[in-house]
Amino acid sequence: MEFKIQQKQTSKNEAYIIDDEKKLSSIAGLTKDELAFISASFVAEQTVVTINRPGGFVFIYLLKNKKSDAQTFDTCRKGGAELCGLCNKHKLAEVTLANLSAIPNAALLVAEGMALANYQFLKYRTEAKKIAHTLAIIYFTKTSATLKDVTQLSATIDAIYKARTLVNEPLSFLSAEQLSREIAAMGKESGFKVTIFNKARIEKEKMGGLLSVNRGSIQPPTFTIMEYVPKKALNKKPIVLVGKGVVYDTGGLSLKPTLNSMDRMKSDMGGAALVSGAMYAIAKMQLPLHVIALVPATDNRPGQEAYVPGDVITMMSGKTVEVLNTDAEGRMILGDALEWAKRYKPELVVDFATLTGAASVAIGEHGIVCMGTADEETKKAFRDSGNRQYERLVEYPLWDEYGEQIKSDIADIKNVGGPSGGAITAGKFLEHFTDYPWMHFDIAGVSFATSKKGYLPIGGTAYGMRMLLDFLTHYGKA
User: Do residues 190 and 105 share a domain?
Assistant: First the structure.
């Protein structure tokens, strides 16, 4: 998807964003019949009205303000998704957006919704050319967006597309090693450094959590380190992103028992895809922040050498973990990555993981469960970013009582804490490997969609990346 500022009238197809029917008078060329048709369509609660002319299409989007700015902004994105569908229905290659509403960034929000909805994963479809969307370019009138806005939007959408594609790739292609190669290619394209540890190096570093999960696999694990260092960084110490990279999860010997529970488990590396895509956008946007990202990656299978319930694993930190459920594998590999992050003496560490079914059950597909030890100012900044991007957050407590649930009789801690508070006890497990300001985002309920909803497609969503990039864009600014 391309975004361009229109220098002269190049597109025959135009889309006007209005928030009041009176503003129809400012659209040149509308006939009385067309005006009557538009008004009647609005009375019939039609959001986007289509006028088909011999020389091209005209779309009128009536934006209705909601109770909050966040809801209004997301309505713009959803309107963009509807507009995208109409453009593709009529086989249009490009359209120009003109903002006539009182919301300054309405065109950008509509374009964002259009681009998010326009994504397709057609790599394995033999009829790909036939079913591919036609919309390829979105123009903005000069008064509807700035070049900086368009550049940032382009980088964000590119990153989201890349993250979604990684999630959509099956294990038959995306092994842990292939994931690291894909990340390296993203680094080369956008300008961040990538270092990949193979199994021998992982063994040398004594990453016991990652190695234990990998024991049942026929394919080796990887540990990928990304780093972006701008010429002048606002942060004296780095921000570290950590993403869970379980490229496929069977549950190991604690095999997933429920019907269809493995169907989407190629998406268990959604956190890895999110932070890798975020690094791509950070480098493309040249954000003035020193950022490092870590991705521990493996699949989790019930092979002959697989770790078993009852095993005691020594983590990279030296802490011992009693394994009671091999399907609680994400926290095992993240524990080593969070320990590795200590060597950077970070200003903030943020992890993203499809970690628990408990988070998904609790709030479904409407937000992200989060928790952490960062200060209240940082937590508020994340909440504000989540609201602006409509990737909302629900914070859970990290009370000491939840820590009691993961105490072990034979080791330092155990990897599950019982049937209650599952998302929080997973967070308490991760907290054991931190000694810095830290936030944990459990994206289990939002990283993969089984049906299209608004601007979110079936499959990988990259839900949470816009929130993270918004947070980083505002980081260090008053």
Answer: no
The pLDDT of residue 55 is 87
Gap between the Cα atoms of 433 and 333, Å rounded: 11
Out of 331, 388, 414, 428, pick the active-site residue: 331
From the list 256, 342, 379, 392, the catalytic residue is 256
Helix residue ranges, H only, 259-375: 270-285, 330-341, 357-363
Asked if residues 144 and 107 have their Cβ atoms less than 8 Å apart, the reply is yes
Number of domains in the chain: 2
pLDDT, one tens digit per residue, over 116-167 is 999 999 999 999 999 999 999 999 999 999 999 999 999 999 999 999 999 9
pLDDT tens track for 366-406 = 999 999 999 999 999 999 999 999 999 999 999 999 999 99
Sign of CA dihedral 416, 393, 293, 176: positive
Question: Which amino acid, 331?
Answer: R
Residue where a domain stops, chosen among 143, 178, 210: 143
Beta bridge partners of 227: 193, 292
CATH code (residue 180): 3.40.630.10
Q: How many CA atoms lie within 13 A of 8 on its CB side?
A: 0
Q: For residue 195, which amino acid is it?
A: T
Q: How far is CA 372 from CA 21, 381, 398, in A?
A: 47, 13, 7
Instruction: Supply the pLDDT for residue 478.
Output: 60
Per-residue model confidence (pLDDT) at position 10: 66
CATH number of domain containing 44: 3.40.220.10
Residue 437 in tokens: 């300001």
Domain boundary among 111, 143, 175: 143
> Helix or strand or coil: residue 223?
strand
| Residue 350 contacts residue 240 (beta carbons within 8 Å) | yes
The closest alpha carbon to 279, from 344, 348, 227, belongs to: 227
Strands (E), 100-157: 137-140
Catalytic residue list contains 4: no
Residue 367 and residue 228 share a domain: yes
Judgement on whether residues 135 and 171 belong to the same structural domain of the protein: no
| Residue 98 to residues 6, 74, 102, 135, 474, Cα–Cα distance (Å) | 10, 18, 12, 17, 27
Give the model confidence (pLDDT) of 68-92 as tens digits.
999 999 999 999 999 999 999 999 9
Q: Has 256 been annotated as catalytic?
A: yes
Asked if the structure places residue 164 within a domain, the reply is yes
**Residue 394 within a domain:** yes
Cβ neighbour number for residue 40 with a 10 Å cutoff: 11
150 belongs to a structural domain: no
Dump pLDDT digits (tens) for 305-324: 999 999 999 999 999 999 99
Give residue 372's domain range.
155-474
Q: Do 127 and 178 lie in a common domain?
A: no
Q: What per-residue confidence (pLDDT) applies to 71?
A: 97
